[in-house]
Amino acid sequence: MTDSSPLAAQARASALREQLEHHNHQYYVLDQPEVSDSEYDALLHELQALESEHPELITPSSPTQRVGAPPASEFPASEHLEPMRSLANAFTQDDLSEFDQRIRDQLDVAAVDYVAEPKLDGLSVNLRYENGVLVLAATRGDGEVGEEVTANARTIGSVPLQLRSENPPKSIEIRGEIVIRLKDFERLNQQRLAANERPFANPRNAAAGSMRQLDSRLTAKRPLTLFAFGVGASTDPLPETHYGVLDQLRAWGFRINERVECVAGVSGCESFYERLIRDRDDLDYEIDGAVYKVNDRGVWNTLGSTARAPRWAIAHKLPAREATTVIESISVSVGRTGVITPVAELTPVSVGGVVVSRATLHNLDEVHRKDVRPNDTVMVRRAGDVIPEIVGVVESKRPPGSEPWQMVSHCPACGSEIVRLDDEAAHRCLAGLFCPAQRKGAIEHYVSRKAMDIDGLGEKLIDQLVDSERIKTVSDLYQLSLVDLRGMDRMGEKSSQNLLNAIEKSKTTTLARFLYALGISQVGEVTAKSLAQQFGSLDRLMAADEETLSEVRDIGPVVAQSVHGFFAEPHNREVIESLRAAGVHWTEAEGLSAAEDLPLAGKTFVLTGSLQTYTRDEAQARLEALGGKVTSSVSKKTDYVVVGDSPGSKQKKAEELGVPLLDEAAFEALLVAH
Fold this sequence. Notes:
Distance between the termini: 82 Å
Radius of gyration: 28 Å
Shape: globular
Strand content: 15-25%
CATH superfamily of the largest domain: DNA ligase/mRNA capping enzyme
Oligomer: single chain
Largest sheet: 7 strands, antiparallel
Structural class: alpha+beta
Helix content: 25-40%
Number of domains: 5
Number of strands: 22
CATH topology of the largest domain: D-amino Acid Aminotransferase, Chain A, domain 1
């Protein structure tokens, strides 16, 4: 007689979960199944029945939670505790050698050990575990903020719902790549064809699309595999080497790519790369290169990172795959910043398993250098297996009477004159605030956090507002009403009012933020601050000629030409006046102020840890407003390190170098004193 008491049910459920997770690990991670599908299904069915009878037994890490949940209304944003940076690329052996030389020079060593691994062509994700339990999953997004896809990640068999550890970290981020293996991809497309559904174009798109299903029950039906490749933020100490970290991840239940290996120096990287190319067609997943990471994690902070990529890692791109086709015509596209890009419209051709019908020609110089013309027969490749480009022309097949292609003289989207800045290869439409082709991008940039910081106005809502013609320029944002917003998808009374409040709040800003928000070509945050500091007034800046602009520190003739051209465009001035009329304002300086006259001029600061009074951006802005320079790494040239709560290794580095430390009280006193 079966004991159906709650205690017996709890014990049986626990035993079933342990068996099922063991079989999941054997099947999805080790590729070594120990039971048949029917035996596995019987165990799962028994656990589901127990949990149905005793709902209190259901846990977030139960294998039954992998089947998916009802559809979500949207993917909320999720900020990574530690940024997921991109990787710099090496396309040649020389690029790789230069990367290795830079590292050896910086570390002052004769040789460096690397961890080499295939660069999988899938979707990068960040998994957060707390006390060993999966609590959040997010896509990479822009590297700092991604889309929260926890329900979808739970459906993937190779994603542990609970770490295989009796003493897991209190909190840790695990990074990995979600792919669909080729054998699974072929089977998936066969199933779709049998169901009269359109087959997927390639495994990467299929994987990315599967993870972005609002209904995670659909994701559960897709054969997704996660390969873990590293970690992000962790509350607990980790192994000192990257290879050791991968071993730890393997012990915790993650699948690690079987081709990962530790190699000695650049020669070891090259050997790994050659073997990867040789075996490429035998792999059961798509790759677009190899990745090399310095094995010693202890030197990662020393090597540092750029804004986009760590200096201790590089992606070595594989040779692109090529095909021959015909250019039917050459059109132009207009980018967010007004860059005019020639585009080859091709007779569709399959390149590396993907049908290609367009290829970038980059700029007019590139068109002329390759002498690419309409109706030419050309070799096409997918650079890095991603972006199609023209390799060269088969001149023997060129039709008679062919003429070189010339750049159009006016923007195809708004009719404004196209210009080419000195020393630049690109042609541009400078009517950035007016041009319809730049409209969505211009608005997205205008509302971004480091520009006007209008919270709640995301890409999808901007698409709706622009497509419905409620917004034609950024100045129209300030004319939006509750009626306008309530007509948009997923915009209720509260969210609409919150957005209107954020728009109203954005009217009070700084000249530097406003200049950056305008999206002027060549003008980033630093340049915008320099211009605001030098001119103090928007009217003085708009009246400046190129020669005057060129005299500003850190601004050369190309930037001066771009700024002058932007303000010379009547359409842009009309939008700016509309913004000012709508109430966008800032405090303007009475006269010019040179950076060298400011109280903290010449002083270099590094920020580490969390401050209670300021965000990192606010603290940096306060220092820069006083003439200080803020950098990301500590060196002998650093004057002060500002230390907040939970500081990182920068504090230890400062102590070793004897760099003065400022706690938050001392930092505040410094600001007040100046």
